[in-house]
Amino acid sequence: MITSLLIGLAILAGLITIGWKITDLLIGRTSWALQFALAFPLGAGSFTYVLFLLSWAGVPLTPASVSLIYLVAVAGLFGLSALHGPSHENWKSEATKGTTLFHSPLPQGLLIALLALVLLFDCVISVGQAYAAWDAVAMWGIKGYGIALEGSVFAGRSWGAHGLAYPFNIHLLVALFKMLSGDPLPASKLIFPFFLISTVLGSFAFWTRRGVPREWASAGCLLLASVPVFFVHATNGYANLATACYLVLATFVGAEAVASGSRGGQVLAGLLLGLACWTIVEGMFFAAAVLVSLVLARYLGSKGEIHWLHLSLPLAALGGIWLLFYGRYGASGSQAMGAAHAMFASIRAGELNLYAFRMILGYLRRFVFDPSTWGVLFSAGFLMAIFGFRKLVFARDTVLTAAYLVILSTGVVSSLLFYLRSFVSEDFYAYLIRGFPRESFQTAFLFAGVVVWASGAQLAGWLKGPSAEV
Questions:
Q1: pLDDT tens digits, residue range 120-132?
Q2: What predicted TM-score, i.e. pTM, was given to this entire model?
Q3: Rounded to an integer, what distance in angstroms lies between the CA atom of residue 339 and that of residue 349?
Q4: What CA–CA distance (Å, rounded) separates 391 from 462?
Q5: Do 120 and 225 touch, CB atoms closer than 8 A?
Q6: 327-356: b or e for each residue (b if 16 or more CB lie within 10 Å)?
Q7: Please, what is the end-to-end C-alpha distance for the chain in angstroms?
Q8: How far out from the chain centre does Cα 403 lie?
Q9: pLDDT digits (tens, 9 = 90+) for 35-90
Q10: Are the beta carbons of 453 and 256 closer than 8 angstroms?
């Protein structure tokens, strides 16, 4: 058991190494928080995508072949780094140096200790609970084990539910642990809290780069980590939290890259969006919404520069290749395609199901402040929005404009996806209660991102004096 845990931690460290080097090559020096936030999701998604392409090409996935592929990938990244060096772009911000709410480090230390305790508890519960929920076992866990046992992504046809209709990012991550350690612990469940940790760290990096005092940013991280539905999804083996992680990090990185004209940052944002497509079927719609939002922010914000190929090509390449596979092997048995056919058939028959939008609005009105789902995220968030009203309304900022647009566009996509499902759901309202929160993770994370930034920047402005005000 201990050996399995150590191998599991080594796998995580190996994936983090890949992501770390990719970040280094694309954006160079950056804050420790952003570097660590990007390392795991970027390394995990990139490596599983390589395994997918090789498996599709007929390469058997065995412990030996996977280890060799990893060594070649890491050697290639270190070789590129030696030849060209890290990116000359400097993403290391000194914006918050010296900006603190307290003279003593004790308050921030206590907040960090509480945050670490919550995240550690996430990891323990996740490993102990294992693959207990239906989606986790039928769609992700069993398929991952099947791929490990048969050595091919095509094992997904006969293992678990829904055939080959879902991207393989989570499946192949689970398969890595099964192949290399047997996964008796199971350490593969650590990947889910690690996606939450990455999202929380990415939020901290975004806030501190935007001038938020570190104590306020640490409190924001604790707020995110303690949201009940985030906590549950860091332990239950579903893919929604992982998808949200990619989308949120892509928004934070992409917004700053567009505002500054950073080529490497825009490549990184496009890669993260492509990996969102690689994690869940609806990821392609959310990724498209984020991409459109970033482009619009360039023209609606105060400054910015779009490098079209840098931003769009990684998304098009990763998402496009997966769609080719999906169209050939997975679409015919896909629930999503079945729902789409039912929707078009109903619309042609004059049944528009407009009641679905009324029910979605009714659900939001009743449950957005539900403490058992969202904790105090939205209640505290709206108070922070009132406190930071001046920043939210009067700050002419491309990054803030992008965040607004992504919150709006991803919220619209979530609603449209549930409108689509209203055509095949027997009890639509019950389905809303069960499923709408997890489809709204990226919107909720970014809402927190904006209100913590606005309120924290307002505090920092008061600390620095009138010259720092908008």
A1: 999 999 988 767 7
A2: 0.95
A3: 15
A4: 12
A5: no
A6: eebbbeebebbebeeebeeeeeeeeebeeb
A7: 56
A8: 15
A9: 999 999 999 999 999 999 999 999 999 999 999 999 999 999 999 988 887 677 77
A10: no
